[in-house]
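Notes continue from the previous slide.

Worked example: a multi-chain complex. Inputs as given:
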Amino acid sequence: MTRKHFLILMILMVVACALPFLVSNYRTFQLTLVLVYAIALLGLNILTGYNGQISLGHGAFYAIGAYTAAILMDKLGAPYWATLPAAGAVCLVAGFLFGLPALRLEGLYLALATFALGVSMPQLLKYHRLEAWTGGVQGIVIAKPEPPAVLIDAGLPINADQWLYFFALAVAILMFALGWNLVRGRVGRALIAIRDQHIAAEAMGINNALYKSLAFGVSAMYTGIAGALGAITVQYVAPDSFNIFLSIVFLVGIVVGGLASISGALYGALFIQFIPNIADEISKAAPWAIFGVFMIGFAYLMPTGVAGAIRLLLTRRRSP
Amino acid sequence: MLLEVSGLHAAYGATRVIHGIGFAMEEKSITALLGANGAGKTTTLRALCGMVKTEGEIRFRGERIDGRSTEDIARLGIAHVPDGRGTFLNLTTEENLRLGAYTRKDRAAVEADLERVFGYFPQLRERRAQQAGTLSGGEQQMLAVSRALMLAPKLMLLDEPSFGLAPLLVRELFGILRAINERERVGMLLVEQNAAMALDLADRAYLIETGRVVLAGSSSEIKSNDAVRRSYLGY
Amino acid sequence: MDAFLHQVLAGLATGGIYASLALALVMIYQATHLVNFAQGEMAMFTTYIAWSLINAGMPYWPAFLLTVGIAFIFGILIERIVIRPVENAPVLVVVVVFIGLLVILNSVAGWIYTYTIKSFPSPFPAEPLFGIRYMSAHQLGAIGVTLAVLAALYVFFRFTPVGLAMRAAAQNPVSSRLVGIRVGWMLALGWGLAAAVGAVAGIMIAPIVYLDPNMMSGILLYAFAAALLGGIDSPGGAVLGGFAVGVLENVLGAFVIGNELKLSVALVLIIGVLLVKPSGFFGKLHVTRV
């Protein structure tokens, strides 16, 4: 990473840490969700942006992560921070398992299969035989985590919303750093090679099957962790919040933010969190119409998303 | 003048393949474009049909057709028998033939043409209800030529009609082409690697090498040219 | 036995709807090798238009015909304006555009008509026809209408010049241009027909599932399953697949897994077919050349 990049990152970090003390609790809550979505989008991007496997069903993994956290906290009394690794593990396995049969599906067929997954998820969550665990149609309510006693005793005036924000920030930084490393290294290059020329990649000795399933697993893990974090933030899980439109929202996020881009996940998250709030003023249906227009618009005009546009701007200014 | 081409350049994407080809054809004549593999002969035919990006002038009966779409050029009366025959494999023989006449309005004439085509190629009549993909190579070639005829064209472009056919079949096909040219008064532009057969059929010939015309003349002149005899006719 | 027969017949009725939608999907796939994710929302939107016409006082069958005509034009416009620019774009871009279309149609319908569920009239009488106890008149009528539409399409494609040209354009656009077929317009026509068929499907199923912007997502899933089962490039297969899926859904739902998990049947079917026989029962295997 260049010195300039490092500097920008440090400035961003300072701003991010200062924000919760400068804005209202509700705003802090919204920013926490931005971090949650950023992690989810990074997950989807690893699969779709870097590895070219289209998923219209990532809402399902988000749901699995969310419900894992809710069930662990509500039924088993687990501490909130422990649910994240658990959700990650469950989704890693779930994603990998889904990725195995998905190996034989390309492009549109994979999109179809994942679309089916996304559409059928709410029904699965409402299934009466699982009601004892999932809470059925009503869902599960989760208690809000309190800031650790140690900080209160030290006299630091931090409330629950702010604490949750910093927790999410820490998780996000960790996941982004991991992701950045993954994408820059051998694994990332293999994923991209498979995306661009999968037959040549296989011929060069890359084990396509392994990498593609792994990509699914890792991608699901990210989104699952995001789901758990999201559940804790919103303090509630219910089947109908995890329908096909959640998966579509994620797709919008990576398209607008920028495919195959780490920073794109953040831009996309900002977009999907704040645009509906602004659009809600117009009408209940408006956010979706705007999403749709943006999707089509970006597909035509800015296929590399906001991140790509920024990159283009920067490189153009650098060349004389 | 049936066809006048001047200063034709063509490219596939960024790669230029034809560098300023020019030639002309009279009505009802048969002209051959000869040359080795990769010389640009197929590309020339594609350029005439608007299937590749071109610069330069192409005039069909005095009207400029460069830059127009393939469908429009076909509707003007230019029938292209493409490289690989372009058969509609999943449709029947008869459906393939009727598609050739898709743009024509004169139903009675179309039926008459169908009969005439079966007259030239009786094997097609036998196989009219058969799926075109099940026809042999030679039969598919006859089908391709027939489909072009069903357009009632003024000019036929034939891309390597001898390809993959046994010499006896080629002789038979070329004989029928000569008959079609005389009876239907259709001009033919023939692209061929089989120079000997092509020169027997054609009135005029142009030799193309790496996208340029290097020799032009009547087919008897070309046949007697020493260099051509050695490089392309093998003796 | 009675109950079983009832489920099978009901399954055939909904199966006819799935068959129609599956056919629309296959028509577009054959011509473009693209799966129209927005097919369900297009059908839903045009059904709302029919509702508006009937609500404004137009009698049922004229409203039906007018809606089908509007849907036809709507389909052509969508192909020319929205889809054409991305016809040759990478798969992800195309999927994004389709999903965008889905989302816009869904939200505009919700905005104009609100999300309150509305009832939709049936042109068929309330008492069972011909004294058949196992099916309502509407179910029987729906099967009849579906079969009529499918038969009309078959005749169109097999026996008319335009139908032949459309089949040619779908199979071999290059050769089609060489005989003068305007391939672009054939594509638009295909979309128009698919949209019209979708409108019929929507109008037939609305009395059963009630009209609401989200009515089609589950049905679309079944149509996908049907199209894949029959072979994504086989119209006949799609139709058979549709009826099969309808019966399967009802029978499994009533006797095996309960009505709650019916959508999961579609999911399992889709994944199963894609894994075991991706070309479906009647489709052709595609070989990718390296």
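Summary box: The CA atoms of residues 79 and 148 of chain B lie 5 Å apart. The longest helix of chain B spans residues 167-184.
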